[in-house]
Amino acid sequence: MKKSITKQKTYPIDKFVYPVQTFIQQEKSSGIVLGICVVIALFLANSPWADAYFHFFEHKFGFRFDGESYLEFSIYHWINDGLMAVFFFVVGLELKREISGGELSTPRKALLPIAAALGGMIAPALIYLSLNPAGDVHRGWGIPMATDIAFALGVLHLLGKKVPVSLKVFLTALAIVDDLGAVLVIAFFYTSEISVSNLLIGFGFVSTMIIGNKMGIRNLLFYAVLGILGVWVAFLTSGVHATIASVMAAFTIPADVRIGKHDYIAKIHDYLTRLKATASDTKHKSALSENQLDILAEVKQGTNMAIPPLQRLEQALHPFATFIIVPIFALANTGVSMHIDPSQLFGSVATGAALGLLAGKTLGVVGTTLLLVKLKLTPLPQGMGYKHLLGMGLLASIGFTMSLFITSLAFTDPEYILQAKIGIFSASILGGLSGYILLKKAGRNS
Q1: Among residues 92, 121, 253, 134, which one has the least CA distance to residue 181?
Q2: 396-431 residue pLDDT tens
Q3: 384 near 170, Cβ under 8 Å?
Q4: For the residues of 19-43, what is the DSSP string, one character each?
Q5: The model scores a pTM over 0.85
Q6: Contact 125, 146 (CB under 8 A)
Q7: How large is the average pLDDT for residues 122-141?
């Protein structure tokens, strides 16, 4: 019996589209794109066009109505408070998915990554504060607390099958909890003066989205309009950082389905049977009959009902956040002039950020995990050894995107910002390389 082969018509544009799609689907690609953008930013910051590069992000734009300006911010501000809000929205969707049915869905599954993430946040902050106990530099204690999931997983995926799958799962869960911790730190410690009225309006929109979820509203446009025009704008003008609005809005997105897997499979069989029965409805290969269009519309509707709105939205936004938003953020925030005073390399902010990330993250993640394992509260994930754990701790010290983001909130002094970037770059490069080498030697067995 011959197997039927489905032929798909190709077009000239496919020669360009398919390679791009293939690249995007590879998990290591996001780290590669991010790395390229960092190199471009560093080149521009040290080129004859450096002044134009830095000045570009200072341009302001907003909205005007009846002669009044509204939401008028610099391009830099729009990137960090606007585009990054979408990034944090995706983080919120990932976190809710993990809590609903992933690695954080049960206390036993969640205990180890949550504890490791907390240890990996507390230790870096303490190291930074020990070197910067007072003054304006004190505000940078949140800088070494977060792991850059894109870079860390990018390095991990370069190793391919040389490391156990459980390592990737553990690091992903840890980084997601880590991101939530960073969001909470921003909410409570890096917030300006609060407008209570605007904050209450924002919570009102969040409540409306929650009610819509409970009532069974699955239209993503409903959540998009209320989330952007309502929650985001209200929080942006309230003084509370807009990233908080993004995560809160993400948690209101429905995570359940209208049709279960078994019912969906039965429906698909029914659709296919009906579609086969209409094969003679039209003789032209490029045209469909009204009956066929109706059946295919039912297939599309049934498929959408079988996929949680949360996962549909996450799947749609993830490439945009990973390959557009984060690279733009890197272009705007990683430009560092190499004309550096040697004293800046060893300034307290640079040293605190570097040691906080490299030593604090590694000690916090590894130490907390070992403590729970020794107390027999939870075992190491299957397939992981102690060398894998140490390598993962080193990868967790890649604090790139989140650390730079908190730097922009913590400091206004260019001197401290530069020092923080030096510390972040140094620790992220050393941690990434060390983690890669150790995990490559450890292999799948340790």
Answers
A1: 121
A2: 998 887 888 889 888 988 889 989 999 998 999 999
A3: yes
A4: HHHHHHHSTTHHHHHHHHHHHHHHH
A5: no
A6: no
A7: 93
Residue type, 377: L
Whether the CB-CB separation of 329 and 405 falls below 8 Å is answered with yes
Task: Kindly state the tokens that stand for 63.
Answer: 């909205």
Q: For 240, which DSSP code?
A: S
Amino acid at 143: I
Nearest 5°: CA angle at 98, between 96 and 103? 155
Average model confidence (pLDDT) for the chain?
84
Determine the number of helices (DSSP H) and then strands (DSSP E) in the chain: 22, 2
Contact 201, 423 (CB under 8 A): no
CATH classification (class only), 28-189+329-442: mainly alpha
Q: pLDDT by residue (tens digit) across 25-82?
A: 666 677 788 788 888 988 998 899 989 998 998 898 877 777 777 677 788 888 887 8
**Residue 72 phi/psi, 5° resolution?**
-90, 110
Domain boundaries, the chain: 28-189+329-442, 192-240, 261-305
